[in-house]
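Work through this:
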Amino acid sequence: MASPMTGRADSFPAMPAICLIGAPADAGAGLRGTRMGPDALRVAGLARVLRGQGYPVIDAGNLVAPRASECRHDRSHPPASTAPHHLCEVVAWNRSVFQSVAAALARGELPLVMGGDHSLAIGSISAVAAHCRRVGKRLRVLWFDAHADANTESTSPSGNLHGMPVACLLGVGPAALVGWGDSPAALHPAQLALIGLRSIDPQEKALIEQLGLEVYDMRYVDEHGMRATVDRALHGLGSDSHLHLSFDVDVLDPRDAPGVGTPVPGGPSFREMQLCMNRIANCAGLGSLDLMELNPARDLRGRTAKAAVLLMRELFAQSPRH
């Protein structure tokens, strides 16, 4: 029977264990510092908060950085080059993430990848997509970000790979980062929705239009409201769905989340994002998550890490999942 106050069921199915996977990488970013993100989330109490919501939590520790000898040619590009920087290192990190996420899903756990820069989503989402194809689940990915992350090696103004994961997942990008999980593209455009965008390069806009991507930029959010935005993005999800959230903390306005490498003013407030997480918490099918781009070196007294943990508390508030 549903509670008259919440509309949620009074009894809940068994909750999956949440597997925390630390990926202390910043090779894909222009500024160093996101490698400290996983430990900052731990210090801010992420595991404690999730356990407080009733979930079993397994902290799998941090993935190990690739050996320097594996990536000895990685830094051959001069600083001014727009060729993908540190490609070998980014590929190695993503292989580790792919394997760890795939293993967690095979064990029936809910993997939560703690980044690290957002290029790591290539590995995590590729593993999730392969899992969904194998078990017959319909995949839906919500990508929360201030940026479109849809540049390619030929369009990127910086050469930083954390600006390319969306393109790579859709089959457009450096060959070493495309076509993982036994599919030419990890994602079909219809599986993806981008939310909170407010910094889109002209070449990214062209690719978005070419692929027909579902985009809810900040103009849309301002005009329609966060509740209507996220409800539309979640429309159609059911018991046969697997929902993956790829959450870049720079989607938040810098006033609420200063600890990021590429802040963009004009984002949703912490309160708006709380509402967003609350709406998702009431949706069945949440099965995996990325929490990316926290840069403690740029944070103010841990404010951004604490905000991210509080949003996870809202997201994992008790509700039916499957």
